[in-house]
Amino acid sequence: MHTYKQLVNEVLIRMREDTVTTIGSSRLAVTDDPVVDIVKLAVEDARRIVEEAHNWNALRKDWTITTAVGTPTYSLTGAGNRAIIETLYDSQGGVIRNVPLREIHRKAAVASQNGSPYIYAVDGADANGDIKIRLHQTPSSVETIQVHGFQRSKSLNIDSDVCVVPDQPIIYLAFALASRERGETGGAQSSELFAMAQQYLSAAIALDSVNSDLDNDWIVR
Question: What is the pTM of this model?
């Protein structure tokens, strides 16, 4: 895993520029070198693109919800708007199925139902910006529900921030973005650099998928 500063320096080396000892107070802090400022933003743009290209195993996240009697909605604390929900299980190991929110609203409109939740839907966000889920039935007792999924990481901002997704596609995508912005690519066409970045990304996704290939198998039980 690379830190933000290491990623920036990897790109600067490929652009035949001097490396830096620090990127400054944040990625938005302007330095006296416009190339460094371009690279800082390009690295973060590339990281975001790579993260969103695949559900990486490094981004797996679990949340635990403790229900309260009569309360149908619950926040995934700390999730922000960066969470991807994969599965929910009740305390007996039963699957709580995902359904459209309108289905839960329809059931609630017909009659108020309390019991053990068996379906859920995403229902907006709370005041902290954390994603909320709505359960049906409305819990009639205290239960523990396990939520499994993925959470995108926060933006890279200071030297020591660590990037947990594969670094090679980020480096080459940032190299392509920054070089195109500057207007020259040191002997390589920008299209070639973008193609190399795509090759690295495809290879990284393939390798990551091998480590969780059973999760992609559909089994009829």
Answer: 0.86
